[in-house]
Design goal:
Strand order of the largest sheet: 2-3-5-6
Number of domains: 2
Largest sheet: 4 strands, antiparallel
Number of strands: 6
Strand content: 5-15%
CATH superfamily of the largest domain: Outer membrane efflux proteins (OEP)
Shape: elongated
CATH topology of the largest domain: Outer membrane efflux proteins (OEP)
Distance between the termini: 62 Å
Radius of gyration: 44 Å
Structural class: alpha+beta
Order of helices and strands: HEHHEHHEHHEHHEEHHHHH
Length: 552
């Protein structure tokens, strides 16, 4: 009974503690790209641009079609100039007395012959039509209801409607290409941030391993000092090496935290949420990962088994070049639309109205008057003070600028493709050169460790071997990251904006000055990230030089 009570107490205490711990979210590269696509503000803005361009195209298309409008109106007359026509005969302001019509007299049966003759003579002086009924035509009517439709059909516009519609079509295609570019850019940024975080994990592991090795050397040196096999100077060297490595571990952990925060910011997830990366950095160099990322980024309909078939570096197929071409088409049609203002416009118009003049507020739909007109109207500008000529000059300048920008973009796109191909070749060369180096460095360190324990090697020899091992491990991880980013850049190159002005960063600008100023074997990355992201990647890699920087 006591044992059962203890178990229940432990469960009761452990449940709140487990609830307080943040949940760990496992995240693959494909899932990260998909989440970034769904939550990116840049993609949302570009998608809104596509919707706006589609609306503008529909507006331009509506000018081809007839325009039919309906109107309903009500007017209450408080005072009217026609009230005098309805006033009393004696000039009084009161309502007129009901008088017997003299044009259609009521002759009683017992009237005398003289009375009949007088009534007929008076009636003969009236007009045969009985006069105007002002209540039927609306003069001074107290209540007026009007309902009708108006039709306008464009017959000839001088080509301005067609030119405007084609310009709107080009604008819609350009907006769709802009959305594709934003998707590709977000996919590349997410891929780089993901591998930066994975590389930061690897750098922390390397720093921890270096600290463990320095502590092991310190333990061996301390034992040797106690038995008199090592001098106090060697012991101090080992302590300094260990103490110098501890700030490096702290620095690499802080840099890893920054890398993860950057990734969380791109994915729009809470910064306090814990995530674990499930795509190892070694898998980053596999070409099979490219189709899955492109599918997650919605840049291809389905993953292709042949990753090489997705690579397209031709200038004509670049999204930025096609977007510039659409801009040229739009400006050409805008120039045509401007010049077409010199031609006349012809339209067919028709209008139909029903008018009600009830004595009460609401009309009777069986009593109304009608208006129905049909006509053709033509209009042409005879003198505009130079407005059309000025607009044509401005449109011509816009067209010339768009054509020049297209040529400029084509030249930069060709250079951009060459730079991306060169970066990929360099990254592949560095990756191939790093193969086997880690195994050789590990074997050399194990041999030097044995020689140090046996007194055949000095602590300086062991430290130099350790530096070579850590340098080889860091360079291998950096080479994997750079190769993955270079391949992804080339795979996305067709849909990416120009990357030349974005400061391509080398994840391998890591190693700079290791012990003795030894250069690091690393390749520049082909990532098209912005400058803050470039600085973050470089700072994440600079830890590799500091990992062994404190070693003697």
């Amino acid at each position: 009974m006591t044992h059962r009570s203890a178990i229940l107490l432990l469960l009761a205490v452990a449940a709140p503690l487990a609830a307080q711990q943040p949940s760990l979210r496992r995240l693959s590269l494909e899932e990260a790209v998909r989440i970034a696509q769904e939550r990116s503000e840049d993609v949302t803005i570009a998608r809104a641009g596509v919707t706006r361009a589609r609306g503008q195209r529909l507006q331009a298309r509506s000018r081809y079609l007839p325009q039919l409008d309906a109107q309903v109106g009500y007017v209450k007359t408080l005072k009217s100039q026609f009230e005098a026509l309805a006033g009393s005969a004696d000039g009084s302001d009161g309502p007129p007395a009901e008088l017997q019509s003299v044009c259609a007299p009521n002759i009683p049966d017992n009237a005398t012959a003289e009375q009949r003759a007088a009534a007929l003579a008076q009636a003969a002086t009236c007009q045969s039509g009985g006069g105007l009924d002002f209540s039927r035509v609306g003069f001074g009517a107290r209540n007026q209801w009007t309902g009708g439709v108006q039709l306008a059909v464009p017959l000839y516009t001088g080509g301005r409607v067609t030119a405007g519609y084609r310009a709107a079509q080009a604008g819609e295609r350009a907006a769709a290409l802009a959305l594709t570019q934003r998707r590709a850019q977000v996919a590349l940024e997410t891929t780089q941030a993901y591998y930066d975080a994975a590389l930061a994990d690897r750098m922390v592991a390397i720093a921890d391993s270096t600290l463990e090795q320095t502590e092991d050397v310190l333990r061996q040196t301390t034992v040797a000092r106690r038995v008199g096999n090592q001098s106090e100077f060697e012991l101090l060297r080992a302590q300094v090496a260990r103490d110098n490595q501890r700030p490096v571990v702290i620095q690499t952990r802080a840099q890893r935290q920054v890398a993860y925060l950057r990734l969380k910011q791109l994915l729009d997830v809470p910064l306090d949420e814990e995530i674990a990366l499930t795509t190892p950095i070694e898998d980053a160099v596999s070409p099979s990962a490219i189709p899955a990322v492109l599918t997650a980024a919605r840049l291809v309909s389905q993953a292709s088994s042949d990753a090489a078939a997705l690579l397209d570096t031709s200038v004509a197929e670049r999204a930025i070049v096609r977007q510039s071409s659409e801009a040229v088409r739009a400006q050409e049609n805008l120039l045509r639309a401007t010049r077409s203002q010199r031609f006349p416009t012809i339209s067919l118009t028709s209008g139909y109205q029903r008018l009600f003049f009830p004595s009460d507020l609401f009309p009777s739909f069986s009593q109304y008057a009608e208006n129905w007109t049909v006509g053709i109207s033509a209009g042409i500008s005879l003198f505009d003070g130079g407005r059309v000529r000025g607009e044509a000059l401005a449109s011509s300048a816009d067209l010339e600028e768009a054509r020049a920008r297209l040529r400029q973009v084509e030249e930069l796109a060709a250079l951009d493709a060459r730079v991306a191909l060169n970066a990929l070749a360099q990254a592949e060369a560095v990756w191939a050169a790093s193969q086997g180096t880690i195994e050789q460095a590990q074997r050399a360190y194990r041999i030097d460790e044995i020689r140090f324990r046996e007194g055949l090697a000095t602590q300086t020899d062991l430290a130099q071997t350790r530096i070579l091992l850590q340098q080889a491990t860091a360079n291998r991880a950096v080479a994997a990251r750079d190769l993955a980013v270079a391949r992804m850049t080339l795979a996305l190159l067709r849909d990416l904006p120009l990357q030349l002005g974005n400061g391509r960063a080398s994840g391998g600008a890591v190693s700079g000055a290791l012990q003795g100023g030894a250069p690091a074997a690393s390749a520049p990355s082909s990532s098209g990230s912005s400058q803050p992201r470039t600085q973050q990647a470089a700072s994440g890699q600079s830890a590799s030089s500091a990992i062994v920087g404190g070693a003697p």
